[in-house]
Specification:
The protein is an all-alpha fold and 100 residues long. It has one domain (4-84). It has helices at residues 4-15, 17-26, 32-55, 61-84.
Amino acid sequence: MENNNSRLASILAYLTIIGWVIAYFIRDKEDAGVRQHLNQAIVAAIGEIIGGILVAIPIIGIIGMIVQIAAWVLAIWGLIRAIKGNNDPLPYIGGISIVK
């Protein structure tokens, strides 16, 4: 990460969907680290949503809970990395690219 704006955008991406949208618009479009955090944060959020949907289905609900917990753990892990300025990809979701 090159500057404080990049660090702020990386941190905001993990906090809420609104924070993610703000981070998307204030980011330096050339900063690969911020792009990495934006991708990881949105994939974790999608995982939380999918897990929430699966929880509502009987029998499959336990899988939904596992998906939600895993998404939460990855989001918190990503947030900690963003605070520290670490741009290394997270396991499992670090290679998924939604934001270009």
